[in-house]
Design goal:
The chain has a 6-stranded mixed β-sheet with strand order 1-3-2-6-5-4, with helices on both faces. The chain is built from 20 helices and 15 strands. It has 3 domains: 36-194, Beta-Lactamase (2-Layer Sandwich); 250-498, Rossmann fold (3-Layer(aba) Sandwich), CATH 3.40.50; 521-582, no CATH class. Helix 16 crosses helix 19. The chain is 39% helix and 15% strand. The protein is of the alpha/beta class and 585 residues long. It is globular, with a radius of gyration of 27 Å. Belongs to the DENND6 family.
Length: 585
């Protein structure tokens, strides 16, 4: 059964989103911060239905005072339904990512800094995009004119917790499709009782009579191929459903048809190359795109990516134009029309229908882009790219042996994740070592002078350092590592990595400078200083203190206390009129 596309999505009237909840639970909460806890997890919940006259229609948005622009509503409507080529019968779960438009969102605001400062870079809140997690149902229904019930429940968030939100949808959506609005209102009120996601904490999240236990990853976690085990310290009834990860997908299942090309795909992701993933359905396309963008961890994926993208998207023309080079984006699509539209793209991955048998599916072949001409193009990785590194045959043998021995898929995924993690770390460690060498020595940081500058990153110097401190120290793979680094320097990921590391080093430098000031004899320094110099010191110390207290500087609490004491001491030494200016009542 095809999902038809109408003239365009429009707002359908009525429904839960039409009025604000007035339940007693809602009334009991603080008026100044409505939906504060809910908004720590989700932006809103949307229901998209198919209307014979309107096409895809936004039936409701909840909470009702969350503001979506018309363009965002249109995008959600189209992205919430599989296109007509997918033929998804039954229940389908997938995800999408769309650009935010400007304008005020809601009556509440979530401060991202506290979470982002502690979260792994790859799991920080999206600053400019929404992530949509979709549960779509299409089943025969004789009571409907078209003969089919077609509806999607969409969780809109800025958190990339795909595993958590998919699990949440699998609980909520079937119940919602049966009971509709009252069920959704109750669920949203339950989420509004959840504690905020705090990196490093294990949380128990009650929903519809079930407790989901999750651990929010932290930036200081030891990188492993599998997440830390959950620990339940409370005697919870009912016993919690433990999610081993809020974000990790089943990598082995996602990569099954392309295992022989995992390293080539890893290189393409590392270099930020434009890639189209053409899959038979949005669940396959979105999972594969998310798997590809996650295979660089702990590196943050700095390019654009769209797990599911349609020809109706408001950015369709922008991303498919032939007037300029293809953008650095990974597109997940299901409409074969994209093969013709994106023929000029350098890399196209065509995936066939998934086969869930125990055997390894037929691997897609590497093919030249010139063979990508017809709408019935066969599965394959169409690219003229030649991998810099040799294929790890030992990994493929281990995975194949696991298939033959019917090894659990989560174990297979752990093997694959560890391989990709070690590969990325082997590539990044030399960069980290070289970057660390650019940091000024601590002995050169003196309290009464501006801290020294970080030395510039010189690519030639780095490449020369690889001879004795390169990836060969931690990785057995042979190949043209130098060539890979040279191309990496031109990619968005080098720029993103360098900016982040430089920012962290600059903050560390400033923190060390603050510590040096706090350890100095400030009274001895003030003896021969003018009032202007003393006031200047107060202002600079205050600025550093404000930045440090805003978690922007890595300093200890004792240093902050000492800095405040120094400020008070310095101000106390000034004339009364200046004290009044610096410390107004």
């Amino acid at each position: 059964m095809e999902v038809p596309v109408g003239p365009g999505p429009r707002q359908a009237g009525g429904g839960l989103g039409a009025t604000r909840s007035s339940s007693s639970g809602r009334a009991a909460r603080t008026a100044e911060m409505p939906w504060a806890r809910f908004s720590a997890w989700l932006e809103c919940v949307c229901v998209v239905t198919f209307d014979l006259e309107l096409g895809q229609a936004l039936e409701l948005v909840y909470p009702s005072d969350f503001r979506l622009t018309d363009k965002e509503k249109s995008s959600i409507c189209y992205l919430a339904f599989p296109d007509s080529h997918s033929g998804c019968l039954g229940d389908t779960q997938f995800s999408f990512r769309m650009r935010q438009c400007g304008g005020q969102r809601s009556l509440w605001q979530v401060d991202d800094r506290s979470y982002n400062n502690k979260a792994p870079l790859a799991l920080q809140r999206e600053p400019a995009h929404y992530l949509g997690y979709v549960y779509f149902r299409q089943v025969k229904d004789s009571s409907v004119k078209r003969g089919y019930f077609q509806k999607s429940l969409v969780l809109v968030s800025r958190l990339p917790f795909v595993r958590l939100f998919q699990s949440l949808l699998s609980l909520i959506a079937p119940e919602y499709f049966e009971k509709l609005a009252p069920c959704l209102e109750a669920v949203c009120n339950e989420i509004d009782q959840w504690p905020a996601p705090v990196p490093g904490q294990t949380l128990n999240l009650p929903i519809m009579g079930v407790v989901i236990q999750v651990r929010i990853p932290s930036r200081v976690d030891k990188l492993e191929s599998s997440p830390p085990k959950q620990c339940d310290q409370e005697n919870l009834l009912p016993a919690p459903v433990v999610l081993t990860s809020v974000h990790e997908l089943d990598l082995f299942r996602c990569f099954r048809p392309v295992l022989t090309h995992v390293q080539t795909l890893w290189e393409l992701m590392l270099l930020g190359e434009p890639l189209v993933v053409l899959a038979p359905s949005p669940d396959v396309s979105s999972e594969l795109v998310l798997a590809l963008t996650s295979c660089l961890q702990p590196l943050k994926f700095c390019c654009d990516f769209r797990p599911y993208f349609t020809i109706h998207d408001s950015e369709f023309k922008e991303l498919t134009t032939r007037t300029q080079a293809p953008p650095n984006v990974v597109l997940g699509v299901t409409n074969p029309f994209f093969i013709k539209t994106l023929q000029h793209w350098p890399h196209v991955l065509r995936i066939g229908e998934p086969k869930m048998s125990g055997d390894l599916p037929k691997q897609v072949k590497l093919k030249k882009p010139s063979r990508l001409k017809t709408l019935d193009t066969k599965p394959g990785l169409y690219t003229s790219y030649t991998a810099h590194l040799h294929r790890d045959k030992a990994l493929l043998k281990r995975l194949l042996k696991g298939v033959q021995k019917k090894r659990p898929w989560d174990v297979q995924s752990a093997l694959l994740r560890r391989h990709l993690l070690e590969l990325t770390q082997s590539f990044i460690i030399p960069l980290e070592h070289y970057m660390a060498s650019l940091m000024p020595l601590q002995k050169n940081i003196t309290p009464w002078k501006s801290p020294p500058q970080i030395c510039p990153f010189r690519q030639d110097d780095f490449l020369r350092s690889l001879e004795h401190a390169g990836p060969q120290l931690t990785c057995i793979l042979k190949g043209d590592w130098l060539g890979l680094y040279r191309r990496f320097f031109k990619s968005p990921h080098f720029d993103g990595w360098y900016r982040q590391r430089h920012k962290e080093m600059a903050q560390k430098l400033e923190a060390l400078h603050l510590e040096a000031i706090c350890e100095a004899n400030i009274e001895a320094w003030m003896k021969d200083k003018s009032e202007v110099e003393v006031v200047d010191l107060v202002l600079k110390l205050r600025e550093k203190l404000v930045r440090a207290q805003g978690h922007q500087l890595p300093v200890k609490e004792v240093t902050l206390q000492r800095a405040q004491l120094y400020i008070d001491t310095v101000i106390g030494s000034l004339p009364k009129d200046l004290q009044a200016v610096l410390c107004p009542p």
